[in-house]
Backbone:
């Protein structure tokens, strides 16, 4: 079964690449913004699409749309993969 998740993240490409291995393990980078891998959840593809910066007064945040696709994956494994991915990008607040 195929699964998808589309997110909008306030994150730079550099920060995304720094956090991605901790979120998904090993991966291969294809064309610009395309990342592929496979694990117990099946095959996955993540596409990183730049969006316009978010401006809040003098604060400027980089933004990207993150498109996650899982192929040939049972529902339980897909849920576990998505939860692991989201945990990998969580930031502490104060």
Residues:
């Amino acid at each position: 079964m195929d699964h998808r998740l589309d997110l909008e993240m306030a994150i730079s490409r550099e920060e995304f690449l720094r956090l991605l291995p901790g979120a998904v393990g090993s991966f291969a980078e294809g064309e610009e913004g395309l990342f592929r891998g496979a694990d117990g959840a099946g095959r996955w593809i993540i596409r990183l699409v730049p969006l316009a910066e978010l401006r809040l007064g003098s604060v400027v945040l980089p933004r990207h749309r993150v498109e996650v696709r899982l192929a040939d994956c049972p529902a339980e494994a897909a849920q576990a993969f998505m939860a692991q991915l989201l945990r990998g990008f969580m930031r502490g607040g104060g």
Notes: The longest strand covers residues 42-56. Strands lie at 3-9, 28-29, 34-39, 42-56, 59-71.
